[in-house]
Amino acid sequence: MAVPASALSYVRPTTTVFELEALEGLPCGCVAAAYRARPWDVAVVSLEAKGPHCILAGHSSGQVLRLGDPSEFDDEDEADE
Q1: What residues does each domain of the chain span?
Q2: 9-19 pLDDT, tens per residue?
Q3: Of 2, 8, 57, 70, the residue nearest 28 (C-alpha)
Q4: What is the rounded CA–CA span in Å between residue 17 and residue 22?
């Protein structure tokens, strides 16, 4: 089925809300990702993938692990080094 050209005029480009900053493998095999939500300048850490052998019941894909001010996360990174 063809889409009329006039229907395409309603499609608006979207801006990226979340900007990926880092990926980290966890000891259980899961993968966590750190994002920055640009419009609000909020840092988000979420569980992106559950490891195939992870036994932690609290881990599920898409679960938000932490929200906060991006500068709080930067301070932790500097302390780890």
Answers
A1: 16-80
A2: 555 556 668 88
A3: 57
A4: 16
